[in-house]
Amino acid sequence: MEQEASLEHARILVVRLSAIGDVLHATTVVHNLKLHYPNSHVTWLVSPPADCLLEGNPDVDRLLVWDRRRLDRAFADMDLRTVWNSLREASRLLSSYTFDLVLDIQGLFLTGILSCFSHAPRRIGIHERHEGNFLFMTEMAPPTEERHKIRRYMSVLRPLGIDGLRPGPVLKIPASLDGFAERFWREHQVDMSRPILLVNIRTTWPDKNWPPERFGQVLNGISEDVQVVFCGSAGDQCYVETAQNRMERSSISIAGETGLMELAALFRSATLLLTGDTGPLYIAEAVGLRTLSLWGPTHPEIYGPLTRGHEFILTPHGCHSCCKTKCRHRTNACMRAIQPEAVTAKLREIISRRPS
Question: Is the pLDDT of residue 191 over 80?
Answer without folding.
Answer: yes
